[in-house]
């Protein structure tokens, strides 16, 4: 179930991200504050979706990770989860172990980085300012750690113009809470480390955070050419800690090009707009999580009773296979003679009492009717019995696996 939730969420995030990217390009959004707000909302959705799906607020779409399975060809028997099949358990356990190892390693690295940076910030020497600005010899270039602005040890020698520009940039990070959003993006990419979109979203949010802070410097009437040279200087002394927002570590060439082109700074969004976006996100996430994924069943095969009501997708675990005929007797003779193995994904519709209403083949491997795997799987499905914990007609997808014993 864990892998199924991760796959479901990743696919929905990729589709949502592609749609958002297309809309942003079609509408020609130029304000980095607007784009940053949109991607932040998608990040929150990506973090909320697994919890919603785990608590079965969404039916999800069936993937090969979650399909119950009946095996024919020497194994036999009906199962309620893929882990029960001897031929299926080992790869699933390996995949789960690989996923958990990667996620735990990345989450552990994030936690270690936060602890290390917290020690750096705690040992830094405070400056006499209205906000929390500290000087540390362990910082190579200006950075922001949550609400704390960190400056290198030589910052007391900087000209006033240079210091004002740096503080304008870092204070913009603090106002926008960029550090906290960066930590959430890193957590998201650690949980979904197998999804390239999670890493792209993390980099995009970091780039937009630096761009909006650059705009704050220009809005404070600093010369963009001088500031571009300052960024280039800091880029030669990068910080090694990814948990802090560093002034010159994200898309420096693109930002310098933007400054040299004298692009007009984007307008900061008022708090009411941000809260309105958050309020709109809540129903959108529930809608994305609860989107049905199973189609209504087709009319029943000849000899089977027709469904009187449209079957609804079943919540996870509501429809189960309680027993099945010995599948070995259903192995297609032509396939057995040719020693060909196959897989068939079926969808059955059952009434509230668990009586079969309809069965149809969704996918057959090998494709086509040459070996008769589809017809054999349908006979197995018709001979099985089902339970239904919902008080409505529901559907269940499962797999019949045909594999000859050695």
Characterise this structure.
The protein is an alpha/beta fold. The chain has a domain at 312-402: TolA/TonB C-terminal domain (2-Layer Sandwich), CATH 3.30.2420. The protein is built from eleven helices and twelve strands. It has helices spanning 2-27, 32-54, 86-123, 160-176, 178-191, 196-219, 224-235, 252-260, 271-289, 333-338, 373-383, and strands at residues 69-72, 125-126, 133-136, 143-145, 148-152, 245-246, 312-313, 319-323, 342-350, 356-365, 385-388, 394-402. Strands 1, 7, 9, 10 and 12 form a five-stranded mixed β-sheet that branches. A five-stranded mixed β-sheet has the order 2-3-5-4-6, with helices on both faces. A two-stranded antiparallel sheet has the order 8-11. The longest helix is centred in the first third of the chain and has 38 residues, at 86-123. It starts with a helix and ends with a strand. Residues 74-88 and 291-310 have low confidence and may be disordered.
Blueprint of the fold:
Blueprint: H1 2-27, H2 32-54, E1 69-72, H3 86-123, E2 125-126, E3 133-136, E4 143-145, E5 148-152, H4 160-176, H5 178-191, H6 196-219, H7 224-235, E6 245-246, H8 252-260, H9 271-289, E7 312-313, E8 319-323, H10 333-338, E9 342-350, E10 356-365, H11 373-383, E11 385-388, E12 394-402
Parallel strand pairs: 1-12, 3-5, 7-12
Antiparallel strand pairs: 2-3, 4-5, 4-6, 8-11, 9-10, 9-12
Helix pairs in contact: 1-2, 2-5, 2-6, 2-9, 3-5, 4-6, 5-6, 7-8
């Amino acid at each position: 179930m864990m892998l199924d939730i991760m796959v479901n969420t990743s696919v929905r995030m990729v589709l949502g991200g592609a749609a958002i990217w297309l809309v942003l390009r079609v509408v020609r959004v130029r304000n980095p504050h607007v784009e940053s707000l949109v991607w932040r909302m998608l990040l929150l959705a990506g973090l909320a979706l697994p919890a919603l799906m785990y608590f079965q607020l969404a039916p999800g779409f069936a993937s090969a990770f979650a399909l119950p399975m009946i095996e024919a060809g020497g194994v036999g028997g009906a199962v309620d989860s893929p882990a029960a099949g001897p031929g299926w358990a080992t790869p699933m356990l390996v995949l789960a172990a690989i996923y958990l190892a990667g996620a735990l390693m990345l989450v552990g690295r994030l936690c270690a980085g936060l602890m290390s940076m917290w020690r750096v910030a705690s040992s830094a020497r405070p400056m006499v300012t209205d906000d929390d600005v500290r000087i540390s010899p362990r910082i190579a270039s200006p950075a922001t750690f949550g609400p704390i602005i960190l400056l290198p040890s030589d910052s007391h020698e900087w000209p006033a113009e240079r210091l004002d520009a740096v503080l304008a940039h870092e204070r913009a990070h603090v106002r926008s809470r960029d550090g906290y959003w960066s930590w959430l993006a890193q957590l998201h990419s650690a949980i979904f480390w197998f999804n390239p979109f999670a890493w792209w979203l993390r980099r995009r949010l970091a780039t937009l955070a630096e761009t909006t802070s650059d705009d704050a410097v220009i809005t404070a009437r600093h010369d963009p050419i001088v500031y571009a040279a300052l960024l280039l200087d800091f880029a030669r002394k990068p910080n090694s800690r990814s948990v802090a927002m560093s002034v010159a570590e994200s898309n420096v060439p693109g930002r310098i090009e933007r400054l040299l082109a004298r692009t007009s700074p984007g307008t900061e969004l008022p708090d009411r707009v941000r809260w309105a976006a958050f309020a709109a996100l809540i129903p959108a996430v529930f809608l994305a999580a609860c989107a049905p994924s199973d189609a209504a069943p087709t009319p029943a095969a000849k000899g089977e009773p027709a469904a009187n009501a449209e079957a609804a997708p079943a919540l996870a675990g509501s429809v189960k296979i309680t027993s099945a005929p010995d599948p070995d007797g259903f192995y297609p003779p032509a396939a057995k003679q040719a020693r060909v193995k196959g897989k068939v994904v079926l969808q059955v519709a059952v009434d509230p009492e668990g009586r079969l209403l309809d069965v149809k083949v969704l996918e057959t491997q090998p494709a086509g009717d040459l070996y008769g795997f589809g017809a054999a799987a349908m006979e197995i499905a018709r001979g099985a019995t089902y339970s239904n914990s919902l008080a409505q007609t529901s559907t269940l997808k499962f797999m019949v696996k045909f594999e000859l014993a050695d």
